């Protein structure tokens, strides 16, 4: 393959070396191996449409090989002293810090997000999360159980499940990898990670750091490929003991079905959202408008928690809509390495067309476009750029209002009273997150109580922390990542009875 065409930017030597190394292979047993499938695919820069790398496509036989390696490594890893497992994860976090600039550059090349966001957002959060979970490795405890029988000593252990399969999306490629790797490995599982086919590069870069940190062969295996055949082969595999997935609700359902009809492997699903964000008239309106703006348009709306439905109390509706319009029109849409950029490209041209079709549906369905929703031309025509779109709407049944768009589109509407608000805010199939802006403490808590969502932000939006459990209600999925809950996701409970009578 010819050298990839890169934007004009002062790249790290490590980034250039990684990209010039040629076709990327599969990472199994701490080694780079050619795919038995003999197939490859291309990953592209969404800002230019240009090919960045050719990557191996793992087929069923490759999944078998990775499962065999992970299964062979499992007993040794499970029985490694817990503090030593933690120490390796801490070591990996240190290596990621040392390589943070190159990793951020690869993330921006592959995903499109502004380099400032990758460097100051994604990367620090990757290592924070990894260190937090590393700290759990030697704190996973069971309990003693006061049973009703005499002369029985009963205790529980939290044990790893075995080989974990992790299938992740393209919006936070390295961060999603670490969300799965951290707790799965801390708890003593081995893992097969499949990054999204749109963004495989940082996971492949990570593989070399895993070897350098000193993880035993087979503990971490990384398979690249699309949902079909790679992801589907993992979901259906009898040698995989647990499947952790982040992505669309439609694929989450398929994974659950494959899990059910293979070996009944437990699954955890972190799926889509259509999160309501509510502004009451008594809120600090400047803060609320800025919060609402970033709740949707950071990552060009390609975020599961995006606050895409904005409910505004009617008394301040015009003021909020106008403030939002003014703020949004100041946002710079450009490629991720541009000097001043707030909003990068969408991930693929298919995704761009999907988003455009929602915008068209909104317009035809009577929603009023306040600003944006247009493709960029002029030097940007080969990239998937869209200006941030704000709609004012009344009809909750529009697809644009009900379905996850995963693009820079905000749907803003007015509400008159509490009951109407809660009914409308809860009226989607999703329940991932929600926000509320008000100075009335009691009302804020009532909202947090009434809303069907796994996370609620009061006078803020979008904060996520390694210690704070995260996951969905309803069709946004189940299972909680982060915090100690994440360790529970990757362990199972064993109860041991000891007869102590003579
Ligand atoms: P997707 O759900 O198809 O892809 C996510 C991951 O699942 C990727 O690694 C993909 O290769 C894998 N996958 C796809 N089909 C599979 C199958 N049959 N079996 C096993 N694995 C499979 O999401 P996609 O197509 O990238 O985006 C479509 C929509 O999904 C977005 O517009 C957005 O609405 C939603 N989405 C939500 C995300 C979230 O964070 N909640 C992340 C990505 C997408
Ligand atoms: Mg890419």
- Give the helix/strand class: alpha/beta
Mean pLDDT: 97
Q: What distance lies between the first and last C-alpha atoms, to the nearest angstrom? A: 75 Å
SS element count, helices: 16
Largest sheet, strands/sense/barrel: 7 strands, mixed
Number of strands: 22
Q: What fraction of residues sit in β-strands?
A: 15-25%
The largest sheet has its strands arranged as: 14-15-16-13-12-18-19
Q: Bound small molecules, which ones?
A: 1,4-dihydronicotinamide adenine dinucleotide, magnesium ion
The low-confidence runs, each spanning 5 or more residues with pLDDT under 50, are none
**Radius of gyration of CA atoms, rounded to a whole number:** 23 Å
Helix content percent band: 25-40%
What general outline do the C-alpha atoms trace?
globular
How would you sum up this structure, described in words?
The strands form six sheets. The chain has a seven-stranded mixed sheet, sandwiched between helices. A six-stranded mixed sheet has the order 9-8-7-10-11-21, sandwiched between helices. The model has no long low-confidence stretch (mean pLDDT 97). α6 (173-186) links the parallel β7 and β8. Helix content is 39%, strand content 20%. It is α/β, with parallel strands linked by helices. α3 packs across α7 and α5 runs parallel beside α6 (173-186). It is built from 16 helices and 22 strands. The longest helix has 22 residues, at 115-136. Bound molecules: 1,4-dihydronicotinamide adenine dinucleotide and magnesium ion (MG). Magnesium ion is lined by residues 43-44, 110, 198-199. 1,4-dihydronicotinamide adenine dinucleotide (NAI) binds at residues 167-171, 194, 196-197, 226-228, 231-232, 235, 246-248, 251, 254-255, 271-272, 304, 404, 406.
């Amino acid at each position: 393959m010819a050298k990839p065409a890169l934007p004009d930017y002062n790249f790290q030597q490590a980034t250039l070396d990684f990209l010039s190394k040629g076709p990327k292979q599969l990472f199994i047993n701490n080694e780079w191996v050619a795919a038995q499938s003999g197939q490859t695919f291309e990953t592209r820069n969404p800002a230019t449409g240009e090919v960045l790398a050719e990557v191996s496509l793992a087929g069923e036989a490759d999944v078998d090989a990775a499962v065999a390696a992970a299964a062979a490594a499992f007993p040794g890893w499970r029985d490694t002293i817990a503090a030593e497992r933690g120490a390796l994860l801490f070591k990996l976090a240190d290596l990621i810090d040392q390589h943070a600039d190159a990793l951020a550059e690869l993330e921006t090349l592959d995903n499109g997000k502004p380099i400032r966001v990758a460097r100051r957002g994604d990367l620090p959060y990757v290592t924070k999360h990894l260190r937090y979970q590393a700290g759990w490795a030697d704190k996973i405890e069971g309990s003693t159980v006061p049973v009703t029988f005499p002369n029985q000593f009963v205790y529980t252990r939290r044990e790893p499940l075995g080989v974990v399969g992790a299938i992740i999306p393209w919006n936070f490629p390295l961060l999603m990898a670490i969300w799965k790797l951290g707790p799965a490995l801390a708890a003593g599982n081995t893992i097969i990670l499949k990054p999204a086919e749109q963004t495989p590069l940082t996971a492949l870069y990570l593989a070399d750091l895993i070897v350098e940190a000193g993880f035993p062969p087979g503990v971490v295996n990384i398979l690249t490929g699309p949902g079909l055949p790679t992801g589907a082969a993992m979901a259906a595999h009898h040698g995989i003991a647990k499947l952790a997935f982040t992505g669309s609700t439609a694929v989450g359902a398929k994974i659950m079905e494959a899990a059910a009809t293979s070996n009944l492997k437990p699954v955890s699903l972190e799926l889509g959202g259509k999160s309501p964000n509510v502004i009451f008239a008594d809120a600090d309106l400047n803060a609320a408008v800025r919060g609402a703006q970033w709740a949707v348009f950071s990552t060009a709306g390609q975020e599961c928690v995006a606050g895409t439905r904005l409910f505004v109390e009617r008394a301040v509706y015009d003021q909020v809509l106008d403030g939002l319009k003014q703020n949004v029109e100041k946002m710079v849409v450009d490629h991720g390495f541009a000097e001043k950029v707030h909003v990068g490209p969408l991930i693929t041209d298919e995704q761009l067309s999907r988003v455009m079709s929602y915008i068209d549906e909104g317009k035809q369905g009577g929603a009023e476009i306040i600003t944006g929703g247009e493709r960029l031309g002029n030097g940007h025509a080969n990239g998937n750029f869209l200006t941030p779109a704000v709609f004012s709407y009344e009809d909750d049944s529009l697809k644009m209002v009900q379905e996850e768009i995963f693009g820079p589109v905000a749907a803003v509407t007015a509400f008159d009273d509490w009951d109407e608000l809660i009914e409308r805010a809860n009226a989607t199939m999703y329940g991932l997150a929600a926000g509320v802006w008000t100075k009335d403490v009691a009302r804020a808590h009532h909202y947090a109580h009434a809303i069907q969502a796994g996370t609620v932000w009061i006078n803020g939006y979008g904060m996520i922390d390694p210690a704070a459990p995260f996951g969905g209600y309803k069709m946004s999925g189940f299972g909680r990542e982060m915090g100690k809950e994440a360790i529970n996701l990757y362990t199972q409970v064993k109860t041991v009875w000891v007869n102590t009578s003579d």
